[in-house]
Amino acid sequence: MDFATLLAFVAAAGLCVAGGWVWVSRWSRIRHLQDTPTSRIRSAAQGYVELVGVLRESGATPLTAPLSGQPCLWWRYRIEEYGGASERRSWRVIERGTSEAWLRLADASGECLIDPRGAEVLPAWRRVWTGDQRHPRGLPAHGWLDWLNGGRQYRYVEERLHAGEPLYAIGEFRTVGGGRQGLDQERAQAEVIRQWKGDFAGLLQRFDRNGDGQLDEQEWRHVRLAAGLEAEDRHRTASSAPATAHLARPQQAQPFVLSSHGEEVLARRFYWQAAAGALACLGGALWLALQLGVSGW
């Protein structure tokens, strides 16, 4: 088998596998979106839920989008540079970033804080423009006319979520505080000890009674006892606080999606992506079969 044939085999197999993955992952998202009923925040069950509401200001320091300098609640950006060999010049990503500030979703029944880390965020606001500096000084003054001007060495992509916008959210729902959570003593104690180990010098100062620079078995028993008491105290404090609803990335392999678009729009988008993945998988399989036939396998 020559190198060209081997390369064709690899490309066909890669196309088949990649298309199959897109097909399965997009179809899984469709099923989760359609099979999960929309819940009210106040009455939502603990676990995987679907919420629909409006974004509100969180009360924390307002965010500013890094490229446009405009206020928002969430941002994601990408900077690309046009370069490479004269015959193979193309856009390549040189910088990207995503905000991690929590969002506040409200519906008619209550409010929910959302940790966007790990979410597939699909905002309605998206802008693409070009310029001759790596970091732009805000949005272009003339919008699409910027493409007709010179200086297109860099391309900027910015996406944002704003207060007052609708938001569709599906993820892991938990209510924290309000005395609703039981104490997992062993896990909470281990977490306290882990935090204390982050300042090992302070840990030695508190529990190294013989001053030998290490903790023996008896001293570790004192550490565990103190950590258990600390864990109980933290639990009492958290339980006395008002109940707060949180939405975050599921621990299981379930979609975590935040979108300015409704469920129908998302399902339609995922349908098209699943169909494209299925066609790519089929095309890769046919190409692979053709290569096997040509090779006489």
Q: Report strand order across the widest sheet.
A: 1-6-7-12-11
Radius of gyration: 26 Å
| Element-level helix/strand string | HEEEEEEEEEEEHHHEEH
The helix-and-strand class reads alpha+beta
Low-confidence regions: none
What is the number of domains?
2
- Tell me what portion of residues adopts beta-strand conformation: 25-35%
Envelope shape = extended
How would a textbook summarize the main sheet? Answer: 5 strands, mixed, barrel
Q: Please report the distance between the alpha carbons of the first and last residues.
A: 11 Å
Assembly state: single chain
Would you mind describing this structure in some detail?
It catalyses: S-ubiquitinyl-[E2 ubiquitin-conjugating enzyme]-L-cysteine + [acceptor protein]-L-lysine = [E2 ubiquitin-conjugating enzyme]-L-cysteine + N(6)-ubiquitinyl-[acceptor protein]-L-lysine. One of its GO terms (molecular function) is ubiquitin protein ligase activity. Its EC number is 2.3.2.27. With 297 residues, the chain is of the alpha+beta class. It has two domains: 3-177 and 242-295, no CATH class; 182-241. Helix content is 37%, strand content 26%. It is built from five helices and 13 strands. It has helices spanning 3-35, 185-197, 200-207, 217-240, 263-295; strands spanning 47-56, 63-64, 71-72, 74-83, 90-98, 103-106, 111-114, 120-122, 125-131, 154-161, 166-176, 244-248, 257-259. The chain has a five-stranded mixed β-barrel. Strands 5-4-10-9 form a four-stranded antiparallel beta sheet, with no helix packed on it. A hairpin with a 6-residue loop joins strand 4 and strand 5 (90-98). The longest helix has 33 residues, at 3-35. The protein is extended, with a radius of gyration of 26 Å. It starts with a helix and ends with a helix. The model has no long low-confidence stretch (mean pLDDT 83).
